[in-house]
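Colleagues,

Please find the record for the two-part complex below.
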Amino acid sequence: MLEEALERVRGEPTRLTVAGRTDTGVHARGQVASHAGSPAPARSLNGVLPRDVRVVASDPAPDGFDARRDARTRLYRYRVLARAAASPFEHGRALHWSGPLDRALLERCAALVAGSHDFTAFTPTQTDHVRFERDVVRSEWLKGGPDVLEYWIEADTFMRHMVRILVGTMLGVCAGRMDVDGFAALLTGRPREEAGDTAPPHGLCLEAVRY
Amino acid sequence: MLEEALERVRGEPTRLTVAGRTDTGVHARGQVASHAGSPAPARSLNGVLPRDVRVVASDPAPDGFDARRDARTRLYRYRVLARAAASPFEHGRALHWSGPLDRALLERCAALVAGSHDFTAFTPTQTDHVRFERDVVRSEWLKGGPDVLEYWIEADTFMRHMVRILVGTMLGVCAGRMDVDGFAALLTGRPREEAGDTAPPHGLCLEAVRY
C-alpha cells in the first residue's frame, strides 16, 4: 500500500524495505522504511494513502542505508485492559482481559525473558526462521493508565508471533495454567506446544526502531 | 440509549440523571449517572448496550443521591495533535492542528481562565443558560504524548460549548488572531462574537466527576 503510494507520487515503481514485523492486525507507531532514489514529500504520500496509514516524516538517508539491515533493535508494546467491563476507548487497541491478573507474576516472567534465549517455544512450528535465539534488551510490564498494563519488549529482531505468544503465555501463568519455573524452562528452546496461547494482534504495536 | 438498556435489564422505565454535559461527538471516560430504584448489574447492561458505550460500575448510592445536583466539579480534557501529519491513532480523539502553536501562549491563556469569570463569550448566543459565571478550579495545558498537547479544565459546571470555544480561542491566539490581553478581556463577559472558533467535539472528553 505504501509502495503503491510511493509509485503514484514518485512516478516509478518503488521497492520498500521495512524495519519491523507487523502481522495483520498489529499496529505500528514508529515503523521505519527505506527505498532507493529521492524521498517523496510526506504531505504528498499522505494525500494518496488511506486514512489508517500516515507518513510522519520522509527524509533522505545516508548512501546505502537499509531500514531493516541497519536496525539495531525493535521496540514493541502489548496493551492489556484488565477489568470486568470492556472500554470503547481501548477497542482494537488493547486485549480485554477479565481473568485473573497478578502483576508480580507478570513481572517475574518478564524479567526472565530479558537476555539471550532460544525462543523456539514462542514462534509457530511452521516457520521460515532458521535461528531461534534472540537478544532481548528490555522486557517489563508497566502501568499504561487506569486498568491498563503494558508489556514493553525490545530485542535485536523478533520472530513471527513472538511477542503475542510471550504475552499469551504470561497471561496463562496468571490463570494458573503454568508456574514461573515452567515459563523459565520455555526459554531454553522448548517446542511451541508447551507455550501458551497467541494473544490477539490488536493489543500489539511496533513503537520504535533504533539505529 | 442507556435508559433503554436500563429498561430492558430492570424491566421498568428508568429515568437517568447524568452528571456531565457531552454534546454530540464528545467522549466521556468518567461519566456518572443516577436513577431511582435498585442498580442493574454492569455486566447485564453491557450485554445490551452498543459497543461504543460501556458501564464500568453500577453500585447503590446513598438515599437521595443525584448525580447531577450533588456533583461538585467536572473535569474535561481536550486533546490536540500538533504536527504536520495526521495520526491514525488520534483520529476521532484529538484535533489535528498543523498551524502555529506556542505552548507558552497557551499556558498564559489557561492561567487566565482559572478562577471565577463571566464566560458569556464562551457559549452560543442562543442559550438556555441564565447564569454565565463559572468557577474554574483547574486550567492548564499538559503534554499528552509525542506531539500531543492536552488542555485540562475543571469547574463547578460548564456551559454548552464552553471548553470547545475556550480551546478554539486559545488556538486563535497562537495563530495571531488575538493577543493574550484580548483573551483576558473575553473573561469579563464579552459577547460570543468576540471569541474564537468552536473547536470540534472529537478532541473533548469528560474525564471525571467529583463529589
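The helical segments of chain B are 2-10, 42-48, 103-113, 162-174, 180-186.

Comments are welcome before we finalize the supplementary table.
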